[in-house]
Amino acid sequence: MTDDTLKTCYDCGCDEEYTTITESRGVLICDDCKCGFCEAPQMYCECPRCGMCEDKVPLCNCFDYDRKMPPWAERGHNIPFISGSYSWQKAWPSLKDGNRPNLVESASDFYLLEAMISGVVFKEPLNIAPYVPSVEDDKAFFKAFGIKSVQRQAKLIAERDEAIEIRRKVDPAFDVACILGEAHKKLETLVNALDPILLDYIVMVVGGELRYHNAISRHESGGRMEAWVGWKDVVEAVGPQALEDAAEMFMEFRSGLDFGGPGWADAAMVAYERMMGTLGPDEFTNKKLFIDRAWTLEHNNGTLFNKIDWPGGLDCMWEILDAHASNPPNLATLQDYSSSSVSSLLDEYSTACVRYFESKGLSVANPFQRVEVCSSCYSDPNRGHMLNCTSVYNGSIGTRWVALISVHHSLKGNYTIETYPVNAEGQLILKETDKVSFGTYGNADNIAKNVQLKNALNKEVPPSQHYLYLTVNNQSGLVAYSSHSPKKTYTVRDCLEKHCKVAGGIFMADKDGTIIETLGNKHD
Predict the structure, then answer these.
(1) How far apart are CA 369 and CA 350, in angstroms?
(2) Does residue 435 sit in helix, strand or coil?
(3) Which of 183, 359, 487, 512 is most buried when burial is the number of CB atoms within 10 A of its CB?
(4) Cα–Cα distance for residue pair 53/257, rounded to 1 Å
(5) What are the angstrom distances between the C-alpha of 43 and each of 7, 15, 409?
(6) Shared domain check, 126 and 36
(7) pLDDT tens-digit map of 226-276
(8) Longest CA span, the chain
(9) Are 115 and 121 in contact (CB under 8 A)?
C-alpha cells in the first residue's frame, strides 16, 4: 500500500501504518484521538463531565457512588435542575436586596434574648415567669361584661397599662416579669422574621452546591446562580424530600474535597427537619431551634452564609458564635453587636434583677452597669483623661463621648483609676517635684529622664521639627510641638509655652497643689 492510499487521522495526522484509523462522525480518526466511551472524535465528544474535576464522568474519582440520576428523578420527577436564568433574587424574593437582615446583629439579639429568658445573665437563680398582657384575655373580659364600645375598650386597656406601670415601681419581681414578657415578644418577632429568610437561603445554596454532583453534571451544566433558580422548581415539585435527597447525595462526595460532604449534608438536613416540623414540639419552637442551628452551619470553606452579601458583612460572626459558646456566655460581646432596642432591654433587665435580688436581701453586682466614657481613652470624662488620650492633644475635650458601654468589658481598666493626669477640663497639672521624662517621637527620654519637673523644664530640645512627649507615672503622651533651627536654643519650657498641644493647658503646682506657673496655654 502506498502512502497516497493510507488513511490519515484528521486530528493528529498519523496514518494507518502505525495505528488503526476508523471513520466516526464523518471524519477519519485514530484510536488515540477517539473517545474511549462514545467512540466519537475528541472534538465531538459528548460524554458527561464531572462538575468538580471536569473529567469525563466514567473516569472521575470524586464520588464514592456512581449515581446515574438524582433520587427524585429515579422516583419520576424529571425536572430540569439548571435554569437558563440568573435572576435568583426573583426566584427567592425573601433574599432580595433590601430584605436581607444584618446577620451579626440578628444573631446577637437572638442569643441575648434567649439568655434573658433562660435566666443565665446572673448566677443567682431567678424563678420569675414572664408577664404579657393577653389580647385574648382582654377580648374575653369585654365579651363577659358586654363592653362593645371601642373607645371604652381602649380606655380600660390604658387604665390597665397605667396600673401595670404603678405596680412595676413597687414590685421588683413584677417589674422583672414584665421585662421578660417584652423579651418573649421580641424573640417571637425576631424568630418569625428570620425563619423564612434563613430557610430560603439554606435551601437555595444547597441547590447551588449540588450542581457539582455527577448525577446532575452528567446531564446538565451551569453556574451557581442558574442552579439556585432551577433548584427552586425541584423543591417546589418534590417538597422537603428534595432536601433529604440532597443530604444523601452530599455524603457521596469523597472526603477531602472542597465540595459537598458532611457540612453540606448537615445544612440540607437542618432545612429538611425544619420543613418537616421535627425540630421542636410546636411551630414556634421548631422555628427557633432551626435558627439556633442555622447560625453554626459551615461548609468546607467557612460559614454557610457567605454565598451572598449581607448588610454589615459576616466578619464578626465567629466572634458572636464564640461569645455564645463560652462558659458562661460572653454577653458583653453579644451586647456590643446587638441592636439598640435589645441592648437597652438587657440594661433594663439587669437593673431590675439587681433591684429584685436586693429586695430579697441579696447583694448582687450588676454585670451590665453602663456609663459614659471618653471615646479615646475609655476614662470617666467627669473625672479626667489619660495622658495619651487623643481628646487631650487635639482640643476636643468635652465632645468625644461615645454611647453607654459596659464597665467590665470595654473600659480596659481605665475607669477604675483613682486620679487621672489630665482633669475633666483637659488641664495637665503637675507638681514641680514630680519625676518626669521628656523625649521626642520614638525616644521617650532623650531630653530628660526621670528628673524633677522644675529641673526638666530647662533641658534643651534638639533643633528639628518633631513632637515633644512627656512621661509621668508610667503614662506617656504628646504635650507640645517643637520646630526650630540650630541658630536658637529652645528649652522644654519654651516648647510648652509656644506649642502646647494639651487641650486645657499645662500648669506647674507647688507641693500643696497650688498652681504657680502656666507652662502652656489652652490649645485650640
Answers:
(1) 8
(2) strand
(3) 183
(4) 10
(5) 19, 19, 66
(6) no
(7) 999 999 999 999 999 999 999 999 999 888 778 899 999 999 999 999 999
(8) 121
(9) yes
Identify the CA nearest to 224 among candidates 306, 279, 158, 153.
306
Amino acid at 338: S
What's the pLDDT score for residue 507?
Answer: 96
CA atoms within 13 A on the CB side of 108: 26
Q: Which amino acid belongs to residue 164?
A: I
Whether residues 27 and 147 share a domain: the answer is no
Whether 36 and 107 share a structural domain: no
- Would you tell me how many other CB atoms lie within 10 Å of the CB of residue 11? 16
**112 sits in which H/E element:** helix 103-118
pLDDT tens digit string along 202-211?
A: 999 999 999 9
Question: Cell 498652681 sits at which residue?
Answer: 515
419, 422, 424, 426 alpha-carbon torsion, rounded to 10°: 180
For 483, the domain range is 428-520
Do 503 and 395 contact (CB within 8 A), yes or no?
yes
What letter does residue 465 receive in the DSSP assignment?
E
Q: What is the pTM of this model?
A: 0.70
Q: How far apart are alpha carbons 270 and 275 in whole angstroms?
A: 9
Amino acid at 16: E
| Domain co-membership, 115 together with 204 | yes
| Phi, psi for 144 (deg, rounded to 5) | -65, -35
